[in-house]
Amino acid sequence: MPELKEWTLMFYFASDNPLAPGIVSQLKSLKAAGYHPDANVVTQFDPYTEGTPTHIFDVNLLNKLKHPGIVNVGFQGNDPFVRNLVEDKLWRDQTTRNGDLVRVALKELLQEQREITYMAPVPPNDNLTSHLKLREPMEEPDPQESLKSFLDFCRLRYPARHYALFILGHGVVVANDVFLYDEHASKQSVTLTELGLAMREFHKEVKLESAEFEFVSFHSCSVSSLEVAYELKDTANYMLASQGPAFVGSWPYRSILIRIFNDLVRYSGNIDIRQMLLRIYRYCLHNSADYLLAGYSFQLTLCDLRRVKEIKEPIESLAQALKTGLDDQSTTDVIQLAHLKSQSFFQELYSDLYDFCFCINNKIDDLRGRTCQCGNARCSHATPPMRDLYLACSKVMDMLVKEEPPRSGVDPAEGKIVISAEFVGYQYQYSHVLSILLPWVRPVADRRILAEYREYKFTKDAGEHSWFSFLDKYFETTMRAPSSDEIDKRRGPRRLSDQEQSEQNLYEDIANLIVIGDAADRKA
Fold this sequence. Notes:
The chain has helices at 20-32, 61-66, 102-114, 143-157, 192-208, 226-231, 253-267, 273-288, 312-325, 329-341, 353-371, 384-400, 449-453, 457-460, 467-478, 483-491, 498-523; strands spanning 5-13, 34-35, 39-45, 55-58, 72-73, 160-168, 212-219, 238-241, 298-304, 344-345, 350-352, 418-424, 435-437.
């Protein structure tokens, strides 16, 4: 029977893509951190090479078996020995050259040479579908199924009082299709809705076992967003993620594990989780500072997912004020200018929500200051849409103000949503905390961006005044007329030749078909 430990640290490396070679060094850094008998370190690594199986490692398994009850944090500092993970691999049905099962042969070897009786757990079979049907020889489980299977395996075979999940893979999960990208799976990525479902199921199961899902760390690009935080609010207690790029090597896994092991040595089962996470957050931030030498900027946010629900009403008020403002041309201009000036991420698909609100209020203050001596945007000289928008932005910013300084050992009811957030490099100097989806134009019909966004908890829980409803109106209101119409207004009417008129009629017929089809698609 598996032994209950204090911590199970799960590392899910979604690397069946060009990230794979860099992941090997991350695996070795986990190995180099040493071990603590009261902590399980379980890692899944999916290689890029086609036909290569997914590996699951119980990191430093043999070292812990050979030295039961012994703590060895970081190994001896001056020991040059090179350690690898093949001895920690959990085997499925692979056989030796003699035809024996590898896991059985290892069991016999441990018994014979070390007098250790131990049979390692068998990892999930990646050749079976969720319906226990054989896959095609080169087909792999899709990322959602793979993640869920890994979480279930860790929970059942490595039970603990506290769980932590570190995810490394391609990011951009909000309204996109590349998160945890798997090159060789039939379904190659995970949607935010699917991620939330897998995480909530895991949280529910560990709660039934009186355990805690303490935190999730996303070592992935552009995952630190309000939509992600809201989708995961009923799962882990804390989330660590970046609004911008996250580079392989920027999370110092050896230092992270050593931090947790040292806290186990010092505090055992009474670790201040918040303080430990603040230290891990700083390790990631400081380690990423060296990427400036290569010209890369970086951003990092640590937030309390238990407090995210509190921003629901301020966001609804903001969406309502933004929609009302779009009916007033001067307020629409303010919104568009704030969108232009605010900190953006990933090809301007996302904007920092705090900075967007800040730019709106800053512009309203500027406009009112030119016509009113008091300079107060809430005075009677401001138009009603501007006054409402100003107040709504202020409430959202109040909710997103980070703790200064970030505190440890506080009750969740006394803390803030954002515990700490910082940037390194000029590209993200206006970043604050969490991003939100804010494209300039409606995504093309063959991408499922808005269809997926409509299904998020962030949208469904909001009802009439969701952020989705603002985006829908924003795209319609700010869309410019076709350039030919604007040119005709400036030049006046011009007689078309017969050929030009024929081409114009054809163009209009095609355009009408596209508009009708697009409208039908949105209605469906």
